Amino acid sequence: MTRDISRGGLLRRATAVALTAVTGLAAAGLAAPAASADTGPVHSVISTGAVWTADTRVYPQPDGADRTFWFFVKGTGMTGGNSVTFTSSADPSQTVKAGFGGDEQGAPCWTPKGSPNSNCRVTVHFPGTSALGHWEMTQVELAQPDGSVYRQAVTAAIGTQLKVPSVELTAGANPVQASGFTLGATTADNRAQAQTVTMSMKATDTAGRITQVGPELTGDCWGNVGDLSWSGDTVTMKITVPTSATTPCVVTSVRVTDDSQRNFEAKAPAGLVITPLQTPATALTIGDVSFQPRLSPDGGTAPVSFPVSDTIPISQVAVTAHGPVAPGCAPTASTTVPPGTLTTNVSLYLPFAAAGTTPDGSKPTGCQPGLYALEIAVTDANGTHSYGAVGTPLAKPLDISVGSAGTYVAMAPQRLLDTRTTGTLRGRGVTSLKVAGTAGIPADAVAVVMNVTATNAKDTGFVTVYPAGGSAPVTSNLNHTAGQTVPNAVTVQLGAGGAVELLNGSDGDLDLIADVTGYYVPDTTGAVYTGFTPKRVLDTRPTHVPSRGTVTVNLCDQARIPYDATAAALNVTVTDPKDVGFLTVYPHGQALPNASTLNFTPGQTISNMAVARLGDGCLVDVFSSAFAPVDIVVDTSGYFVPDDSGQTTDGVLVTGTPVRQYDSRQGGGPVPGGSSLLGWGLKPRDWGIGSLLLNVTVTNPTADSFVTVYPDGGPADSAPTGAGLPDASNLNFTAGQTIPNMVNASVGANGYVDFFNHVGSTDLVVDMFGYYTTGVGAKSAAATARSAAVAPSAAAPGMVASPEANPLRLPVVAARTAAGRP
Q1: What are the pLDDT digits (tens) for 747-780?
Q2: Read out DSSP for 132-160?
Q3: Based on the number of CB atoms within 10 Å of its own CB, is 232 exposed (0-12), middle (13-18) or buried (19 or more)?
């Protein structure tokens, strides 16, 4: 049995995946039916969707109890009195009605951080006498503030548009089973003001692959899908109970679903009860905290000061910075307060050791680049009380960025540069582009995400984008020929004055266009990144996108990313266009911006990456400007979600001056068709790296082909295997073409990234612009000492050696080529 468990989202307070507003039906091309006479102004916007894309199969319960089916709705005004109705296709006189606006236990709906919408679970109970076969949602009712009810009939056309859930009541034994529940260890999560309890159970499926597991709970508690772990047939999950809870949390049952939409509910035995912890009240207050927000990786001290007051004497105050863990990094300081002190002003200096490596260069030492969150611990007669990163959150984030590290803020595409109107860039010329402090981007931004397009080129050449104030690196972002229009996504650190520089690497004049789609800030107010193996979410072949057409992609539905995601990493490909044009990727529900993602000519197949802000309902739109049909393919490799944890280890981007890490022209040779370049990578458990931010360039290809960059599928501590090749691509090219693309490349469990070439042979050039941190790096020195990456010599095939000090100059393992498709 194989398992494919969704990493994000909360099962009990989870979110829908198919999202279209009922009140927006007319805009979607569907006429909204007339409301009932008692309808008031429609204040609720409801979006419905099943967790599954096909009919959910609901089997009879072994004890003869009601069959149950659940899904989620999303919208505003979810205060109670709302409902949905399901009708049997076999016997239309049979209907079942289920309410929402609070879940089945009466708890409030869940509102994601920064979202105006709430997410509510709807549980539908089918009595034992219900007709077998197909059941469809046929009506939605929304309560209005004045007490009236808005009723919306769900016709077949509307149901298709809304992607409403449907149910298949099935006879016979269910191949999905769950049993053997046990509660395990309890840990306190001070940041979340909650306790976390592990629960284990056995889940089996004799006919498919389990895709969803989640507990049914009473009380103010929830189960987190992202915390699932497997050992054989035993799955362990975490249940969270907030310290504000006043009633026990009871596990009543567990629901299991597989990839054929079979769902099974196993009743839990009596006694699975979690008693809430009670947090004693404290009169402690922490005033405004002043601290140094940025530090160099070369080390130093960070001053921190703030006032503290209490109603009982304070004995000690300590400050600790939580971040990437490596030997020699211990940024903590404390002070003892004179007896009887009730109020004091604290001034401490946190020591940050310089970032370095072990003598063999294989492991990190000192305080590595990343975000470090401050915890303030105050001790009085009642014990020690924590604030900030651990404990009670304070009014503002207390984060210190070592190096250039930050979290992501997505925005709708906006044009920042167009030299066609400001002046063409001369051959070998450099233009500076101010980013921070412009177009709504804050002055303290540390990096920017742009789509850079070269056009009207008079000569063959390249474009390099790099932080202002430094020398141009030996890297490139765009490659072009004379007369060609070529785009590429760029994520780059901001340099002096919050600016970047763009180098024209040709002898001829060139126009450049830069559209910004997001930026990174040096604290946890943005979103953090989670990468995964690339997944195809759209392929319009053979139906095509019509002339001047727009196609909408539901990323929560197609890629199972969490519903509170703010942006996604996409690879967008156009193929077989019948006309010249461009594509624009932008948030659904917003106006088409004056920006482009991808430019193409008739017959061309070309790709570009887009870090796309998600619009209404987890949707993005892709617009084609061509006056003829095109086909569009979209793959996704990761997503960004708000950081609610206060612990900043996971998903933080670290950038530096771009570095060329691999060039097959300097050794190793071209990658043959039908094979993968294996073993290029890092040891993520040593370096705390989950994904690499790369610019990958194909050059000297001998055939029309594509390249896929993917995490090696080998187990932890294994050599690279080449396994895990997905149905996705990153670069598409023709024979003789030189073309780049930005890639957010997730590393495998063993630390390796592989590059697959479809046919022919091609050289690969890999430039590194940054990396995303992961919590597996936040371990003790003893834990990280188990395995080491072998640092390559200067002569390692394809590896590019340089004495330059740079946070991106990390040890890599020399690559090899595996013959044959993995």
Answers
A1: 888 888 889 999 999 999 999 999 999 853 332 2
A2: SEEEEEEEEEEE-TTS-EEEEE--HHHHH
A3: exposed
